[in-house]
């Protein structure tokens, strides 16, 4: 199985003319001339931007170019933050002690840097207490406002009312 290159290199470049960049001023030249220049330097002619008019090409060592590109992508991937979502579940008639217990957990999650998904789950006929569920979530948002900001206000989705709180940047 032969792995297909992402870029057109050397003879695989189909354009008649290319804009050669890299060493000195960018210049438009015939593809064959650019290819000869690359062969003289014992390097590859690589098509960097095929959609440009004319396509942009560069004379470089292709293997080294691919290696450095992979290295760059790896660094970007390492620096990307992974979002963790923690959940807190309430009932529509949650009493104060239980609320405080869950609020403290919410504080801990936001301090860790995790997003918080707080929801009120309505079972059976408890759906008639929608307003109580919304009041409960808004109270939580108010109690946690110094640690996080509300990303999504309380919203009904099926049998649950969801609210998202993201941690504030330090």
How would you describe this protein?
With 170 residues, this protein is of the alpha/beta class. It contains four helices and eight strands. It has two domains: 10-77, Roll (Ubiquitin-like (UB roll)), CATH 3.10.20; 85-167, Translation Initiation Factor IF3 (2-Layer Sandwich). The protein has a four-stranded mixed β-sheet with strand order 2-1-4-3. The protein has a four-stranded mixed β-sheet with strand order 5-6-8-7, covered by helices on one side. The model has no long low-confidence stretch (mean pLDDT 85).
Task: Describe the structure concisely for a colleague.
This protein has helices at 31-40, 62-79, 96-112, 130-143, and strands spanning 17-21, 27-30, 44-49, 56-60, 85-90, 115-121, 148-157, 160-167. With 170 residues, the protein is an alpha/beta fold.
Annotation, overall tally of beta strands = 8
Poorly predicted regions = none
What is the count of structural domains?
A: 2
The CATH topology of the largest domain turns out to be Translation Initiation Factor IF3
**Regarding CATH, which class of the largest domain?**
Alpha Beta
Radius of gyration: 29 Å
Alpha-beta classification: alpha/beta
Average pLDDT over all residues: 85
Helix content: 25-40%
Q: What is the overall silhouette?
A: rod-shaped
